Amino acid sequence: MNEDYIFEEEDEVKVPPEPTSSYTPVTPPGPKKGLAVTAMVLGVVSLVFFLFVFNILTGISAIILSIVYLAVHKGKDGKIMAVVGLITAVLSLVLFFASVGLILGNIDNIRPASYDLIGISGMEVDSDYDLDVQDTL
Fold this sequence. Notes:
The chain is mainly alpha-helical. The chain has helices at 34-48, 54-72, 79-105, 107-120, 133-136. The longest helix has 27 residues, at 79-105.
């Protein structure tokens, strides 16, 4: 090859500066509050629907999850949510059993009231709906 090539000094080429370090310190993850959130949601759901039978399942689940969270994570974030879940679950179960007790305690008054309600709506109802055992023998 020919050595006729002339190398001129290059003008100063601006090289982009190297990026500064993008290191951000890694913070440890926060406390895991999944059990507390689940307990609170189940407790509130069981309190809203306390007259339904699935209230027993959601209420007991909320109580168990709240107790587990409070036992494992002492003094951590989420304690308030676990306590709210526990209180609402217990309250919903108390309301459920109290309402069932009141309904069963007044079953003798509910049956005639339902017959009167049917009679008001235009249906004929026999007035002798109370049969004695001796009448049927």
